[in-house]
Amino acid sequence: MAESSALVIEDLPPGLRRPILLATFAGWNDAAESATSAARFLAQRWSAPCIARILPEEFYHFGLTRPEVRIQDGSQTREIRWPANEFFLGQAPALSRDVIVAIGIEPHLKWQTFCSHILEVARRAQVTLVITLGALLADVPHTRPIQVTGVSTDPELAGRLRTSPTRYEGPTGIVGVLNDACRRAGLPVVSLWASVPHYVSEVSNPHAILALVRRVLEFLEWKTDVGELEEAAAEFDRQLARILAQKPEVARYIQELEQRVAREETSEGVPSGDLPGATDIIREVEQFLREHRREPGQG
Predict the structure, then answer these.
(1) Which residue from 121, 149, 114, 152 is spatially nearest to 135, judged by alpha carbons?
(2) Chain-centre distance for alpha carbon 164
(3) What pTM did the predictor assign?
(4) What pLDDT digit, counting tens, does each position of 109-140 carry?
(5) Are the C-beta atoms of residues 164 and 150 closer than 8 Å to each other?
(6) In what order do the strands lie in the sheet with 2-4?
(7) 3-class secondary structure for 139-187?
(8) Which range is least confidently modeled, 8-17, 79-88, 250-259, 264-273?
(9) CATH number of 2-224
(10) Which is higher by pLDDT, 17 or 204?
(11) Beta strand pairing call for 68-71 and 86-90
(12) What whole-number distance in Å separates Cα of residue 230 and Cα of residue 206?
């Protein structure tokens, strides 16, 4: 086990095959937990073991992101679980390249130092490409396919990943800072972002997860069963259909949102004003989904 400051590398085998680093972070960059859920899905499909981690002590205000107490299975022993930033190595036989999946939590402190540890893992593994995943809230209806936007330091990579360019300027999160750190280090990076309907932001959105998973799988030219996600997405749609049937005010809100998006598409993106009653609608939809949701695999 090699250790350097807060970075702990437990098992990094030599001779990786043109490895890719796929990185996601919970928090501001992760609307409806879409990006981190997509990364976990892929890591599980690849049976990826943990090979490295970043210790949390110097990067978090534990009054804001608190550790959790858990009881170990089959005993009364209580253990503390700290905010985790872990790296998993995917080496499925059918993969043409190895993939290191980094799943973490946006830190509160020392972002540049935090990113330097990620780049150190990339350097030691001789990573040739970084893909970051994110999800953002958008004024889009759930009745439309999830849009994946993105940026890349390499136009050819942007074309292969079919990213729709974004001209966003404003506050950024740890994903944006990591993207910039990769660029400065001369490491090619692509950032993929799923647009999540803002009125269903507090529950997991399987459509957004599926959109990100499919985009990564397409780039890797690797196939796997995504039936679990497809069924979760279908159940998600059924729940929203029940809302529309039971609550006419929600149905009107979605219809107005669909009309607004259609107008923007034909008027060069000129906003058409705020939608009425959005806050109350959002609260009502999310409470309904929390009360009726079923986890994937529970039928």
Answers:
(1) 149
(2) 17
(3) 0.84
(4) 999 999 999 999 999 999 999 999 999 988 88
(5) yes
(6) 2-4, 7-9, 50-54, 86-90, 99-105, 20-26, 129-138, 189-197, 148-152
(7) CCCCCCCCCEEEEECCHHHHHHCCCECCCCCCCCCHHHHHHHHHHHCCC
(8) 264-273
(9) 3.40.50.10900
(10) 17
(11) unpaired
(12) 8
Of the ranges 17-21, 206-210, 283-287, which one carries the lowest mean pLDDT score? 283-287
Band (pLDDT 50/70/90 cuts) for residue 297 is: very low
Structural domain spans, the chain: 2-224, 229-292
| Dihedral pair phi/psi, residue 233, rounded to 5° | -65, -40
pLDDT in the model for residue 271: 43
212: which 2 tokens? 């990100």
Task: Give pLDDT, residue 164.
Answer: 65
Q: Mutual orientation of helices 227-246 and 278-292 as an angle, nearest 10°?
A: 130
- By the 10 Å C-beta count (0-12 exposed, 13-18 middle, 19+ buried), 273 is classed as exposed
Whether the per-residue pLDDT at 273 is higher than 60: the answer is no
Q: How far apart are CA 249 and CA 141, in angstroms?
A: 15
Record the tokens describing residue 141, joined without a space.
């209806």
Where do we find the tokens 């936007």? 149
Place of tokens 């966003």: 168
Determine contact, residues 275/256, Cβ cutoff 8 Å.
yes
Q: How does 125-153 read in b/e, with b if 16+ C-beta sit within 10 Å?
A: bebebbbbbbbbebbbbbeeebebbbbbb
